[in-house]
């Protein structure tokens, strides 16, 4: 074989690998706190749902659904990034999550979030990690996002991925 044929073969091989490699997927969502909702600051950081009234954005549910879809395609998935935009004045939240093949080969099908809002939110949020781990009963917890909303209503929220 000549050099040109070898280089073309290598180039074609790399192109095929790139085309077959699973791409990361971005999922998005949003929610608004309805007028008159009790404890609106608490509702604003209800990324999943509140125990008191069930209000929330169901963000973790949507992320878990996509993780499960990826696994059903033979991909060990993970949440790679989470972006959150909070508008404290309008009490709205827009979020996105990037999901793709796991960088270490493990399937991170679990996602948990805990946090707090208002004065003292940092200390309250930090104290919730062990309780959440005990409730989820997962393993290999890795921080995906340490979110702090510093404009408007202060929120401190942690997002962890984990293996089931």
Describe the protein.
- The protein has five helices and six strands, in the order αβααβββααββ.
- The chain has helices at 3-20, 40-44, 59-72, 121-126, 129-136, and strands spanning 25-32, 77-87, 92-101, 110-117, 139-149, 155-163.
- Strands 1-3-2 form a three-stranded antiparallel β-sheet, covered by helices on one side.
- A hairpin with a 5-residue loop joins strand 5 and strand 6.
- The chain is elongated.
Structural class: alpha+beta
Order of helices and strands: HEHHEEEHHEE
Distance between the termini: 50 Å
Number of strands: 6
> What overall form do the CA principal axes indicate?
elongated
The biggest beta sheet reads: 3 strands, antiparallel
What is the strand arrangement across the widest sheet?
1-3-2
What portion of the residues fall into strands of 2 or more residues? 25-35%
How much helix is in the residues? Answer: 25-40%
User: How many separate structural domains?
Assistant: 1
Mean pLDDT, as a whole number? Answer: 90
Task: Give the number of helices.
Answer: 5
Radius of gyration: 20 Å
Query: Low-confidence segments, ≥5 residues, pLDDT <50?
Result: none
């Amino acid at each position: 074989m000549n050099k040109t044929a070898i280089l073309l073969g290598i180039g074609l091989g790399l192109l095929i690998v790139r085309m077959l490699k699973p791409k990361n997927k971005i999922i998005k969502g949003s929610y608004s706190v309805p007028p008159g909702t009790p404890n609106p600051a608490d509702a604003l950081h209800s990324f999943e749902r509140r125990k008191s009234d069930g209000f929330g954005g169901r963000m973790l549910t949507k992320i878990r659904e996509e993780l499960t879809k990826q696994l059903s395609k033979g991909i060990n998935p993970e949440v790679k990034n989470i972006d959150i935009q909070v508008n404290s004045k309008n009490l709205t939240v827009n979020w996105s999550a990037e999901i793709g093949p796991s960088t270490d080969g493990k399937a991170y099908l679990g996602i948990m979030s805990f946090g707090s809002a208002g004065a003292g939110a940092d200390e309250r949020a930090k104290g919730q990690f062990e309780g959440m781990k005990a409730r989820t009963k997962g393993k290999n917890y890795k921080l995906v996002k340490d979110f702090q909303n510093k404009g408007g209503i202060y929120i401190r929220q942690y997002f962890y991925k984990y293996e089931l």
